[in-house]
Here is the input.
Amino acid sequence: MWRTLSLMAVMAGAVAVTIPEASASPVCGDRSKVIDSLSAKYSEEPVAVGVTSNGGVIEVLKAPDGQTWTILFTYPSGPSCLVASGEAWQDLEEKIKGPAA
Here is the structure.
């Protein structure tokens, strides 16, 4: 049991997530400039994208080695804002679903 708790504590400490507080000003800018900056500084590139119900675009960017990651939201009106960033990204294994599983 202690081994499991210790492992959970280490895993929790390994991920440093930064989410802007309500009173903090979000970091926003032109999408191409934000993407270029994250690519130059952290080697992060988009790996997932989705459209929200309000027409915005949410993107996950990560470094090839998974050491850093960023979630970026682009408003329909144009600006892109950092939503969260952190370390130690891990891709989940896809599970086969349906009759072929």
